[in-house]
Design brief:
The structure is a single chain. The chain is an alpha/beta fold. Strands 3-4-6-10-11-12-13-14 form an 8-stranded parallel barrel, surrounded by 7 helices. It has a 5-stranded parallel beta sheet with strand order 17-16-15-18-29, with helices on one face. A 5-stranded parallel beta sheet has the order 20-27-21-22-23. It is globular, with a radius of gyration of 27 Å.
């Protein structure tokens, strides 16, 4: 049998390990832990799911080697805590029993450590929380240590590590590696990138020590090389060691690819895999490069691995916005890298390796880069995904039984929620009819189909529509579900997913403006000056899109700040794009009137006009709640979901749709 992607599925032997293909699941932390912060069955099931999906290696991230000095969150795995033995053994075993190599990422945060004496008092916020909060965290903990002393580091005063402490941490890396091996892991990944401790020692900008541990390149490499040596002695010559590096720190305050090549050459053949990432975890401008934002192209960071690959003999892994097996095959076939590592993509579709091996590229759910996963981990310490409702619920999914009774189901509305409900119900054996009042499945999000940075969303909508039909759902387009129709069809179950409509604000001259949805559908209508009313997510993304098309954009927002998650990774990327396009913003500003060629505004200081060739409003939506409720007595079982209850996002609609459909026909009493 010939494989569609032969290079991608060529096994790789390293030491005593055989990796079944070249697709690795890159390091990811898992923060849904109990009060004791020990790994549990939820964590084992999460990483096991990736092994089941065919990944050759699955890496458990954020394993802290020295909990006293190197922790950046109090709920991370403590590799120096003997109590982790059964939990880590369960995680490693859950991965390895399905043929994947379990890896543990060994990390120390150095000068970016944050920890507290009383975890219950911690505000578990996402990366990017305000600086004062981080300083409170540190004030409740211990001393910050880095390569050099800093009077005012990012999280407070930093003390230079003494040689005694450095030797202690070096030893702790070795001990952590030995602990990982004892727990059943088949590889360790040393975190030497993204601005953490090893990267701090390698940095010519940070490590200006005047002793033998800093200054010159050779001295700056002494600490990371000592860590590698300590780990090698702890695990033996045949045990695979991977090291994660930033090929470039992608900023003037960090090193470039030339320095990255030197670092890689110094580590060449001292480790078994050079895992080449990019950026610095602690700075917004590079954080959205380390984890490529929606505005960057697929494989944007491959160039760093490709350059390093030219200079080393050690196998090289690349990571960052990789979703397409065609691209992955080309990366390996062309010699840019030997391994592709997938992060968020392994959340969106943990079955990518199996689907790619079977040549089912069109069935792969490609990561939208919407950063819902980051928001979930930051706000709730639970991973989640807009398009994969199983993620974060793996244990529950294992316990799901088939329905005890099959039913006829009518789904009203063919947006993302309606399609997910119909698809799930049909796959579970129910007789499903999906009615959509327009001529196409996809709902309101179809208006964004031509937006370049939303191309993965358009692909997802089309893929879901195809799956709905393949699952045997009877699809009725141009058909609105009224009580009369529902009574005529007489289903056992009605699922109302009718969506919402754009809310036009009560402003004089609003008839001179158009909705964001309408402008998305007809972007060429605007040339010149565009004023957008509303600084929420829809308004900001529309502003970026229209600025990309050459419009001169101004945003008017009634509130003092944008109405978006202030700490979200997508927000970081949006703010950078607003800055790049020099998009003007007026906060605390009320719109009094919309004229043909101007918008009349008022703030506390004065009344003024903004020149406008076009005005668009992105001021929220109104749920079709009454239309949905009109169907509530047309079937014995009735459900509502998505925007027709309260306008939300893809994740909100998908997770509820999946759960509701999964519950249909199940005995609960």
């Amino acid at each position: 049998m010939s494989l569609k992607y032969p290079k991608l599925f060529t096994p790789l032997s390293i030491g005593s390990a055989v990796f079944r293909n070249r697709i690795f699941a890159s390091p990811q932390g898992f923060y849904n832990v109990a009060k004791d912060n020990l790994p549990g069955r939820d964590e084992a099931a999460y990483f096991e799911r990736k092994a089941l999906g065919g990944f050759a290696s699955v890496c458990v991230g954020d394993c802290i080697v020295d909990s006293a000095t190197g922790t950046h969150y109090p709920f991370l795995i403590r590799m120096d805590d003997p109590s982790t033995l059964p939990g880590l053994s369960a995680v490693a075993g859950a991965v390895s029993r399905h043929g994947a190599i379990a890896s543990a990422e060994l990390s120390h945060a150095g000068m970016y450590a944050r920890f507290v004496k009383d975890p219950d008092a911690e505000m578990f916020g996402p990366e990017g929380n305000n600086e004062a909060h981080h300083r409170r965290e540190k004030a409740a903990g211990g001393t910050l240590y880095g390569p050099v002393a800093m009077a005012d580091g990012k999280y407070g005063e930093v003390e230079a590590m003494s040689e005694e402490l450095m030797l202690h941490v070096i030893d702790k890396f070795g001990r952590a590696a030995a602990w990982a091996k004892r727990c059943g892991f088949g590889m360790v990944t040393i975190h030497g990138g993204h601005g953490w401790l090893l990267a701090q020692f390698m940095s010519p900008f940070i490590n200006t020590r005047t002793d033998g541990w800093g200054g010159s390149f050779e001295n700056r490499m002494k600490f990371p090389l000592a860590v590698v040596d300590s780990v090698r002695k702890a695990v033996g010559p045949k045990f695979p060691i991977e090291i994660r590096l930033s090929g470039s720190e992608c900023d003037s305050t960090g090193y470039d690819i030339d320095e990255g090549v030197k670092i890689a050459k110094a580590l060449d053949q001292k480790v078994d895999i050079l895992h080449i990432s990019a950026g610095n975890h602690e700075f917004e401008k590079t954080f959205v490069i380390t984890h490529p934002s929606i505005f960057l192209p697929d494989g944007v960071n491959v160039k760093y691995a490709a350059e390093i690959k030219k200079h080393v003999k050690t196998p090289v892994a690349t990571v960052g916005a990789l979703t397409d097996p065609e691209m992955m095959e080309e990366i390996i076939a062309s010699g840019q890298a030997d391994i592709v590592s997938l992060g968020r993509q392994s959340i969106a579709d943990p079955d990518l390796p199996i689907k790619a091996r079977e040549g089912k590229n069109e069935d792969i759910d490609k990561c939208l880069r919407c950063t819902t996963c980051f928001c979930g981990a930051g706000e709730h310490r639970r991973l989640r995904c807009s398009i994969n409702p199983v993620i974060g619920n793996e244990v529950e999914e294992k316990m799901t039984s088939p329905p005890s009774k099959l039913k006829t189901v009518l789904v009203a509305g063919g947006g993302v929620g309606g399609m997910q409900a119909a698809l799930t119900a049909a796959r579970r054996g129910h007789d499903v009819t999906l009615c959509e009042k327009s001529g196409e499945l996809g709902g309101v999000l179809l208006c964004e189909s031509e937006v370049p940075f939303k191309s993965r969303l358009d692909e997802y909508i089309k893929r879901q529509a195809r799956r709905v039909r393949q699952a045997g759902v009877k699809v009725e387009l141009n058909t609105a579900v009224t009580p009369e129709l529902a009574n005529k069809l007489a289903p056992d179950v009605i699922v109302a997913a009718l969506g919402a409509v754009s809310a036009a604000p009560p402003i004089l001259g609003i008839e001179n403006a158009i909705s964001a949805e309408e402008l998305y559908r007809n972007p060429k209508r605007c040339k010149g000056n565009l004023v957008i009313l509303g600084g929420g997510l829809v308004g900001l993304e529309l502003a970026v899109y229209m600025a990309d098309l050459g419009c001169n954009v101004t945003i008017v927002e009634l509130a003092p700040v944008f109405n978006v998650d202030p700490f979200g990774m997508h927000t970081m990327a949006l703010m950078l794009k607003l800055e790049e396009h020099k998009i003007k913003t007026h906060f605390n500003t009320r719109v009094l009137e919309i004229k043909d060629e101007a918008v009349v505004c008022e703030n506390k200081e004065n009344r003024f006009e903004i020149s406008a060739d076009m005005t668009a409003y992105a001021t929220g939506q109104v749920a079709r709640r009454n239309e949905a409720l009109a169907l509530h007595d047309c079937a014995k079982e009735f459900h509502m979901l998505g925007d027709c209850i309260e306008p939300g996002n893809i994740y909100d609609a998908t997770r509820v749709a999946y759960s509701i459909a999964k519950d249909i026909g199940c005995e609960i009493y």
